[in-house]
Design brief:
The chain is an alpha+beta fold and 140 residues long. It is built from seven helices and four strands; from the N terminus they run E-H-H-E-H-H-E-H-H-E-H. The chain has one domain (5-138): Nucleoside diphosphate kinase-like domain (Alpha-Beta Plaits). The structure holds inosine-5'-diphosphate and magnesium ion (MG).
């Protein structure tokens, strides 16, 4: 362990939980070598989601996104490792599951369902600032 060890927030979104892919997603995180520090099953409130997705307020997919994220339980994970923020984003793949590379979580396990919001199985923090902010929201 050294000063470069980071922590990130990973969410298995309601589609991933409903499709029983939580284990497969955690398997990929652990197989990569990252460490699971904390995990919880959460029925997210609208207030929590509004804070989590603050940056997307006003975008056309915002309301469908919040409705999707409150449609069922989410698994929140605190994951640690050197460069884990960037590394988990690579494991997750591109936002659009049709374009996400094979080998990634979204590329292997996700697809377009023709909905207003992309159901793409996972969330991962995109910067150290986002990770700190999001971890304090989900693991208050
Ligand atoms: P990310 O999850 O890859 O970081 P963001 O741009 O932060 O992507 O968007 C948050 C979530 O909103 C995405 O994961 C996806 O579920 C949804 N989303 C983002 N952009 C679009 C879009 O253009 N159409 C439909 N849904 C979108
Ligand atoms: Mg994002």
């Amino acid at each position: 362990m050294n000063d470069l060890v980071e922590e990130t927030l990973v969410l298995v979104k309601p589609d991933g939980v409903a499709r029983s892919l939580t284990g497969e997603i955690l398997r990929r995180i652990e197989a990569k070598g990252y460490q699971l520090v904390d995990i919880r099953l959460v029925q997210a409130s609208r207030e929590l989601l509004a804070q989590h997705y603050e940056e997307h307020q006003g975008k056309p997919f915002y309301e469908p996104l919040v409705e999707f994220m409150e449609s069922g339980p989410v698994v929140a994970m605190r994951v640690a490792g050197n460069r884990v923020i960037e590394g988990f984003r690579m494991l997750a793949g591109a936002t659009d599951p049709t374009l996400a590379a094979p080998g990634t979580i979204r590329g292997d396990l996700g697809r377009d369902w023709g909905l207003a919001v992309q159901q793409n199985l996972v969330h991962g923090s995109d910067s150290p600032e986002s990770a700190a902010r999001e971890l304090s929201l989900w693991f208050a």
